[in-house]
Amino acid sequence: MTLVSLFGLLLVALVAVLTSDLEVVRSTSIPLLLLFAFWAFLAWVPYRGARRQLQTNISLTQPITSAFSSEGIHRAGSQFSSDLSYKALWEVRETKSLFLLYPGAGSAILLPKRFFNDTAQENDWRVLIETQIAPKRIAKPGLLGRRL
């Protein structure tokens, strides 16, 4: 929507250059400018929230180790440790460079593919996850996920 609003503003600028009717330009540019500012603000708010969370959450600033077993996922950092059953995973997604393990809709555990030594180990992990989260499956990357 931000891009659509920006395109509308560029179209109004083109009309202003090609015609001398400034009243039409003024009457359409103000709502489009406000719409662009609204969508830009909505795009900026999650980024600001994520930055603030990373700056204030001490456990996220330290290295985190993850261990996978048939019982679940064990994660530990300098300030915390946690165990998560595979049955508690809401969704698992795969992108070009990482796996996203969703314990809920609002957050994900990121597992970079560089975590694995080779593709055989990655495939073994994938089989372990898919057998543990059955009947769910690992969601293949969409258009955006293939690029990330």
Compile the SSE list and pairings:
Elements lengths: L1 H17 L3 H35 L1 H4 L3 E4 L3 E5 L4 E5 L5 E4 L3 E5 L6 E4 L6 H14 L5 E2 L9
Parallel strand pairs: 4-7
Antiparallel strand pairs: 1-2, 2-3, 4-5, 5-6
Helix pairs in contact: 1-2
Could you explain how this protein is built, in words?
- By secondary structure, this protein is an alpha+beta fold.
- The chain has two domains: 2-56; 59-139, PH-domain like, CATH 2.30.29.
- It has helices at residues 2-18, 22-56, 58-61, 119-132; strands at residues 65-68, 72-76, 81-85, 91-94, 98-102, 109-112, 138-139.
- The strands form two sheets. Strands 6-5-4-7 form a four-stranded mixed β-sheet. Strands 1-2-3 form a three-stranded antiparallel β-sheet, with no helix packed on it.
- Strand 2 (72-76) and strand 3 form a beta hairpin.
- Helix 1 (2-18) packs antiparallel against helix 2.
- It starts with a helix and ends in a 9-residue tail after the last strand.
- 5% of the residues are buried.
- The mean pLDDT is 82.
